Amino acid sequence: MDANVASAVQTVQMLRAHQLPDDQPCIEASSSTVNYEASFDTNFQDREGFVSGIAHYVEEAQNLGTLNDMLEQGRQYAGMLYTWRYISRGVPQASSDDQENRTEIYRITVDVLKPHIDKLKQFYLFQGSAVQRFCEEVKKLSNPEKLKSFVSETTKITLIKMIDLFATLNALKNAKSSVRNDCSLYRRAFGILNAGQPTNPEDADIERKLVFFLGTENCLCNDVVTEVRKIPHYLDVMHELADTCIRLLETDGYVLPDEKHTLLKAISFIVYIMDDPEEKIGIYKVKKYNHHKYDALFKETPVVPLYGDMHMQLLSFVQMGPHYDRAKWPQANEALSSEHIDTYHNITAQLPAFEAERDELVSLLALLSTKDVAGRLAVATTERASDVALRGLKTVSRWTTAIRELHGWKLANPTDKYLNRNCPADAEDYERAVRYNYSAEEKAAVVQIVTMIKDVLRILWKMESMLNLGIRVEIYKETQSFIQHNVRDMVRHCIKKKKAKARTVLMGLRNTCADWAAGFEPEDDPYMRGIKDTAYQPPEIGNRHCGPGSTQLFMMRTMLESLCADDKKKSLKHDLDSKFHGPMLTFYNSTKHYFHLLNFKSSLQEAADLSQLWFREFYLELSNGKHIQFPIDMSLPWILVDHVLTSQDPGMIEYALYPMDLYNDAGGFALRAFQKQYLYNEIEAEVDLCFDQFVYKLSENIFRHYRCKAASQVLDEEFKGDPALKSININQYNNDAHYPSLMRQRHFQLLGRSVNIHRLLSQRLNAKLKQAIDIAIGRFESMDLTGIIELELSLKVSRAMHEMLTQHLQLDPYEELLNEANNSVTSAYGRITLQVFAELCTDVIPNHCYNTADRRFIRPERAPVFGEGEPQRESAPRAAPEMRFGSKLLNTAYAAVTAKFTSFFGVEHLSSAVRLLEYRGVALCIEEMLKIVQANITDVLTPYVANLLDGMPKSCRLPLIDYGSVGAMGFYQLQLKDIMAYPDLQTEVFHSFREVGNSFIIFVLIEQVLSVLEVEETVLAMPFQGDVPCLVKGGGWCLKRRNGVLQRLRPVLQRIPLITTRMAHCDAAMAKQADVLTKERLYKGLSIFKSVTMTFKTMLESDATDHSLWFGAKAPNGVVDVDACTSFYRLWSAVQYTSLVSAASRGVDQITEFMGDGLYWAGAVIIALLGHRGLFETSDFSYHIIKAFDLDHKDESVSGVSVPMFVKFARKRRALNNAIFATMERYLFKSKNKAADPAYIPPPGCGIEV
């Protein structure tokens, strides 16, 4: 037992180290919170270890190490100059010479500026020593003997980097006026503080030279040119350096973007140096210094990035030459025109080629990384890891170069209000260069290329360990195969031909790079004695993953280059047989990228570095203190992100996170290269703001998209065939954008922080959906009750939207959101319930007319106002179109649908109300309306009825039928003249009866709606309660077999036994109660209307009202007094007669138009509840006149009232009364015919015997 527990504990502990696979899509750049680099570049510090090499090359390595240190120091000074900001503006200035604290201000100024001025002094001293050292190297190479001898390519590339450094530092010094101003302020403050005191002459001389250096335009470049031109034969050295640049550019000898731009800038500066003031030796005079090849090169890339947001026109240095002629540089000048971008910087035209490269590269990487179960490659491939890595490195570098060159071109060619109508006339320089300078197509192309760069970078970094292993293994095998095999043959040839120099180099190469499997060089190799012995087997090459070191690689390449360089350079190429030239040159060319491959991670990071797209120190300097930092609308990374969010292309939404990675690049560069914390803080502040905007806009887009999608589905489902919507294309909203990929991002890496976008979107969309529900309810509260159709549709859309979003986000349950917006969490009744009740009681019941024929309430026109009239409502809340149904188009579509239900109130509206309110809300409305009816009866109608009964004749028997219709009508005119003359009868009395009648009508309609809904629910619930429906004959199956299938499904569908046996006690009890309630509703036919009417009848019989007032006095005969007018049914006959006389006299039933059928519903319901229907129909005045008219058909008038017209309206009234009585019979007295036990009766023809 203890062993099992220990094993279980051990297994659980092992789970800690197990990483569960993440199901989120990879739509971001390589994510790593901590990044590290392992650099094995020794900068030739280990050169003394290669004593077996050529001593001259060891000395050259020492010189190169010194130059590399200078280059690194120069890069640091370049970063210092570029990130220099005005310090003098933050230092208080003395307002006058009489200011008391003037000395203290100057002292503080000196203390603040002194550390920075000391750095400038160090920079000045550095540039002087760097120029001197560069001239010394050029002087070495300008020796006539040296010009004819071999010079290593590494040395020439290092000198080219020095030239590029001078050009960069010169441009930075010229651009930074803040440096000059801060230096001037320091000198002024320092001079005032130390006036009359002795100073160090050396320090004063340096300060004077520093001021002159900073204040002179192009001082650094002029110093370089002046010093170089003093060297004899400098033109040949410069020409060779320029040719090296061109060769590297033409033969793809560079890898990184900075390397390409370094070569181009160096060519421009070299051409300026070669434009010698001497007429006879300048670049334009000597034929071999053909400048036309430079002109063609400048045409392809006229503008290159210089540093950060600074750019450089390659012709800028050429134009500084004394013999510059525009006509001699036609292609380069043409390239500077605005039309040039269509040819060379048209990023949209380059995009298809880039995408094809991406597809090929990703497919190739997939072949190398896909393995089977056994760990072997799933698909065999002949591609080498080093070749694939180099291809990926160059491809990423080429894409990055395209982006950076486009950005440089845009900075060099800002737009204006004439080129871009969206550009304001007073736009900032940086705005014209960045914000308004990119078209929508260019932004989309840049976003896609950035996405490709970051995506391929992520794949390559993921495969880094595998690629690094393959690179080192392949480089080791290739190097050792050449050293141990090919060089062996060359050594034998040199010994045999007595080529001592070549033999020395080859042996040095062999001793420097060979790695013998046995640990030592074989001594019995006959080739080393110049003897060819085919029987001798050289040792096998070991299988190690170890590449050459940086110094070892330099020594190897330099010695190889000395053996295969051009014959014009006195190389040792002629000492070797021609058969060795090809393999040696091939191996030499293959080693030119070894350095980048051996430092694959750092090279890849440099190749994909787009940090310069964010930096804007140059333009901040140009703003002259107007901006401490530009707003995010001018920031290119945010411009790209915003374009993705605002574009209408659904396929681009997955690219939204890739431009955000530009902030990672900028933040890393600010810390690693610039080492400026304040720059990183500014980047971090912008990221905080941009990311908030990103999440906000993304949540808005997601909400709008899914709102439209849900609204189109609900609209299509409910009103697909509506002719009013034929002109609206609803299907356009059914497209599925790629939002789920973004919504599933749980750990997006941004500036070293892991951000849960999934959680942020869940929070915002949760609040947004609740707000949409709140707005829908608010709109309903601002409308009459017909707006409940729109409310239900809006809530349907919200529910459908919630179902879509919960597939990807963690939202609160929809019912909770609805309850919170409806205030039903903190209140006994929600806003919807209270609004429905209020509208029913204050608008529908008192102000609407009911038409029994179409079962609709309408608002009468030109009707007198009773009571308070139509209630005052709050104005609708203002909301964006997407908060309702997603868009203006869909809002229009839904408005067309709901417009059909705004002119009346009927069953459709009550159906929506019942579905929204459910039983609890319906019960509240009914309860409150009953209170209103009771108050109306008790406080209003009872006094009126009492007064009207007093005005009735004491006895009014029916006249003989022989009197005819005219006589009967004349008789009633005399008998009821007091009632007809009652002033409030046709106003307040009728209005009170209308309110009571409308209330009962609403009770009936609610009962009908609930009946339909309950039948639907119970029918759907029957299979789960064990009631399997019966089947009819036919359909291909025999009836017995089909019933057998249903019987087998019965235990599967029936859930009540399962719940009662397996769930908790409380859940089981609730399930039983729900089962009983469902069966009760199905079998017993529970009726709300019956309960309401019985309650009303009890109220009439209670002491609150006069019993005799409604039921009448007790008859003398103990049964009924047919002639007495003391009962309500006799009064109602008089009321009905009065309304008919009014209608017949006008020819229009104006009372019905103003009051509706609710007036007559009130009387008929009360009569039915009192049990006086038979008495009413027997003794009603208008019914008696109808009978008399049916016999005589006299077309006469009585007191101006047409008898036929009266009979016409009376017959309509009798039909209405019959319909009302039938309704009352159906609901109140159906229990008399109810069966004792409910039983299911199958339909006819089903073949089942009962």
TrEMBL record:
One of its GO terms (biological process) is regulation of actin filament polymerization. GO terms for cellular component: cytoplasm. It comes from the Eukaryota. One of its GO terms (molecular function) is small GTPase binding. Residues 70-252 form the CYRIA/CYRIB Rac1 binding domain. This is CYRIA/CYRIB Rac1 binding domain-containing protein. It comes from Salpingoeca rosetta (strain ATCC 50818 / BSB-021).
